[in-house]
Automatic annotation (TrEMBL):
It comes from the Eukaryota. The chain holds residues 16 to 258 of 552 of the full protein. This is Xanthine dehydrogenase. It comes from Salix suchowensis. Residues 4-90 form the 2Fe-2S ferredoxin-type domain.
Length: 243
């Protein structure tokens, strides 16, 4: 390996790109290395099934920026020096679902499932790139490039609206660091609660929550950014800051 090698990271794993792959799209590369959660739908930027998150260090802004990208349109070498997160890097049944995945599943926002990784990645990229909780309009807008043939969209939109900034009962600014010892955020209400449920991955749900008008159990934004999930979120690889 030399210092001139093309390097990228995929889901936190460093990968050196050999020469001779200029004909590959990022989507073909990801699927070739076994990450088949990212789907090929149209192959021309129209359906969003191939959406991944691309992160890179922006020299002008002096910070990492995150974008949802159609992997079917991105030439592989165009993401050299960047960090790619695919749906496998967000969460799984084995490692624990991310709140975005959990919420979509609970609201029945996935039927055949083909579009699901793309929707997850669009929403995940929006949350990672927003310093404040997004608005409902921003959430709808971020899903505009994702098509679904099965659900009619309403369950998907509903699933993700729990991450929106809103005054309703499902949103809280509370983070785990604000909680008294022994207290924790209830996965049903997103508020401090003594229901003793074990969080999003626990089998139990909050029996104390009476405000659940929807057919899913909302999760709070604070669980995505700053609370229970934080230690699992993939960080930007330090090596790429130096390139
Ligand atoms: Fe349809 Fe990429 S496969 S946008
Ligand atoms: Fe089938 Fe969306 S769940 S295409």
């Amino acid at each position: 390996e030399s210092s001139r090698d093309a390097v990228l990271y995929v889901n936190g794993v460093r990968r050196v790109l050999p020469d001779g792959l200029a004909h590959l799209t990022l989507l073909e590369y990801l699927r070739d290395i076994g990450l088949t959660g990212t789907k090929l739908g149209c192959g021309e930027g129209g359906c969003g099934a191939c959406t991944v998150m691309v992160s890179h260090y922006n020299e002008v802004l002096k910070k990492c920026v995150h974008y949802a990208v159609n992997a079917c349109l991105a030439p592989l070498y165009s993401v050299e020096g960047m960090h790619i997160i695919t749906v496998e890097g967000v969460g799984s049944r084995k490692s624990g679902l991310h709140p975005v995945q959990e919420s979509l599943a609970r609201s029945h926002g996935s039927q055949c499932g083909f579009c699901t990784p793309g929707f997850i990645m669009s929403m995940y990229a929006l949350l990672r790139s927003s310093e404040l909780p997004p608005t409902e309009e921003q959430i709808e807008e971020c899903l505009a490039g994702n098509l679904c043939r099965c659900t009619g969209y309403r369950p998907i939109i509903d699933a993700f609206q729990v991450f929106a900034k809103t005054d309703d009962a499902f949103y809280t600014n509370t983070s785990s660091s604000d909680l008294q010892s022994g207290e924790f955020l209830c996965p049903s209400t997103g508020k401090p609660c003594s229901c003793k449920s074990k969080g999003l991955n626990g089998a139990e749900t909050c029996k104390k929550s009476t405000a659940n008008e929807h057919n899913y159990e909302p999760v709070s934004y604070s669980e995505v950014d700053g609370s229970t999930y934080t230690d699992k979120e993939l960080i930007f690889p330090p090596e790429l800051l130096l390139r």
